[in-house]
């Protein structure tokens, strides 16, 4: 056989790869709405290059509904098999940043502040604000067959008719009713609480002035408003509901061949560390906020919030590192369940990194029945009878306070420091060597050099114990941080260093 010159082979391969990737999700925006304005926001095209429907997905039209924006951002990374997909993940980007429903430049203008009332109607045939004009131009020029607008409500419609939370809003037609029924069935399979089920709202369809209504009336596109509910539901669950509905719709209309509701992160890329952060039962809101802020300000990291339903290989495979934040370790462990904990261990065995902070450090330990058992650490947590006080659990040391932590000399390559620092501490585990002999010993990367104690028997038990520990687990690494660098001004980079340290190692 004649050998192909190497250079030509490379050129050929590059051409083929170029052709393949051009039809799939790209990280580069196709364009921006409001280019050069303060509300500038990117939009993306995913073109299969094959015949099929054109679909527009929008998120974040209301800035206080982050699930729609987050889900749309995830969906823009899906690979489609036919037709064309256009995604505007953060339509009202300014509103999302300000966490307000309104479009901030018009926030004091009652008739104009709600972007989803600014689109063409019979009475007002032109869009009524510059952002609505830009959205409308994009929609008109792409001539969509379907428009999917992702929202969330303040309460479950099934239990409180004042909110449209957890509903599918559409105008009846044979096709639309069939599609809505399919989405309804698929999403409700994932909802066990009957007071949180998604309902169909087709009586009056999308409200006048909304994007979906305008698309339906003026462009003859089939539109759906997909609503989840932000009350008492973590972001991971809300985005999952959006993804399940959208994936069902896409399959039905032939845009995709297979379910993609598990696709939450961009394709792996060595320049970005993909983090899955647990956000459900046992994770506190403040912790989630702090970590979001930290990762959003650094493009070396991409963080996706995940919950118990995501502890499956299809989802976990997309991450380099899993992060378990502060809150309650037992609640986290119990919510994740035995099967989920098995999957997390498998993730570690295969080389994934796991970081636990405070409650997350309890979770990683080998101490409890609900623990991940991924690092051989025992926790100082007896229940002691204190004269005149009663039986007290020793994990509790009172409200949040500052303690001194010294980075170990050996950890200099990881944290670039070996000094004494003040760090916020809030009942993180006081650890010692555990009893699981099948796990390797841990290494201390930092030490507590002062302590907090609420009860007499706690005194002297914290000082000079490890504050940060690490150990290999399978092909991966586990790292546990007892205090809270992520909410200690100036110490936040320690979290990023920890994540870099446990990320899968180059082979
Ligand atoms: Zn909304």
Automatic annotation (TrEMBL):
GO terms for molecular function: hydrolase activity, acting on ester bonds; metal ion binding. Keywords: Hydrolase, Metal-binding, Signal, Zinc. Residues 277-489 form the Biotin-protein ligase N-terminal domain. Gene3D superfamilies: 3.40.50.880, Zn peptidases. Residues 1-25 form the signal peptide. Residues 107-127 are annotated as: Disordered. Its cofactor is Zn(2+). Residues 52-163 form the Succinylglutamate desuccinylase/Aspartoacylase catalytic domain. It comes from the Bacteria. Residues 107-116 have a biased composition (Basic and acidic residues). Pfam families: AstE_AspA_cat (PF24827), BPL_N (PF09825). PANTHER family: BLL3975 PROTEIN. This is Succinylglutamate desuccinylase / Aspartoacylase family protein. It comes from Thalassoglobus polymorphus.
């Amino acid at each position: 056989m004649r050998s192909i010159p190497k250079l030509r082979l490379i050129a050929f391969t590059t051409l083929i790869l170029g052709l393949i990737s051009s039809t799939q999700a790209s990280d580069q925006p196709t364009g921006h709405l409001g280019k050069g304005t303060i509300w500038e926001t990117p939009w993306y095209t995913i073109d299969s290059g094959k015949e099929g429907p054109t679909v527009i997905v929008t998120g974040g039209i209301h800035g206080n509904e982050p699930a729609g924006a987050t889900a749309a951002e995830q969906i823009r990374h899906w690979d489609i098999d036919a037709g064309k997909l256009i995604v505007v993940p953060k339509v009202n980007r300014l509103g999302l940043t300000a966490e307000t429903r309104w479009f901030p430049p018009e926030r004091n203008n009652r008739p104009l502040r709600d972007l989803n009332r600014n689109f063409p109607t019979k009475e007002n045939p032109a869009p009524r604000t510059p952002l609505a004009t830009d959205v409308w131009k994009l929609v008109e020029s792409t001539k969509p067959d379907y428009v999917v607008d992702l929202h969330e409500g303040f309460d479950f419609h099934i239990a409180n008719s004042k909110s449209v939370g957890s509903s599918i809003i559409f105008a009846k037609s044979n096709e639309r009713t069939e599609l809505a029924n399919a989405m309804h069935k698929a999403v409700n399979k994932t909802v066990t609480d009957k007071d949180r089920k998604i309902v169909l709202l087709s009586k009056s369809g999308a409200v006048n002035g909304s994007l979906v209504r305008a698309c339906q009336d003026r462009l003859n596109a089939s539109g759906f408003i997909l609503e989840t509910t932000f009350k008492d539901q973590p972001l991971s669950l809300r985005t999952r509901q959006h993804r399940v509905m959208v994936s069902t719709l896409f399959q039905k209309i032939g845009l995709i061949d297979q379910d993609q509701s598990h696709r939450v992160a961009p394709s792996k890329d060595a320049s970005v560390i993909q983090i899955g952060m647990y956000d459900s039962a046992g994770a506190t809101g403040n912790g989630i906020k702090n970590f979001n802020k930290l990762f959003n300000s650094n493009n070396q990291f991409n963080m996706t919030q995940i919950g118990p339903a995501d502890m499956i290989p299809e989802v976990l495979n997309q991450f380099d590192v899993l992060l378990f934040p502060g809150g309650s370790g037992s609640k986290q462990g119990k919510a994740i369940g035995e099967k989920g904990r098995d999957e997390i261990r498998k993730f570690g065995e295969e080389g994934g990194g796991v970081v636990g902070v405070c409650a997350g450090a309890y979770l990683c330990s080998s101490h409890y029945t609900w623990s991940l058992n991924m690092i051989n650490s025992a926790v100082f947590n007896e229940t002691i009878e204190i004269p005149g006080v009663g039986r007290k659990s020793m994990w509790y040391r009172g409200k949040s306070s500052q303690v001194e932590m010294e980075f170990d000399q050996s950890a200099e390559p990881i944290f670039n420091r070996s000094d004494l620092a003040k760090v916020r501490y809030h009942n993180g585990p006081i650890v010692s060597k555990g009893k699981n002999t099948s796990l390797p010993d841990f290494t201390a990367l930092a030490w507590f050099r002062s302590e907090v104690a609420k009860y007499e028997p706690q005194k002297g038990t914290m000082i000079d114990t490890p504050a940060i520990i690490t150990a290999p687990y399978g092909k991966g690494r586990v790292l546990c941080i007892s205090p809270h660098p992520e909410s200690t001004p100036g110490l936040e980079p320690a979290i990023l260093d920890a994540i870099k340290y446990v990320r899968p190692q180059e082979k």
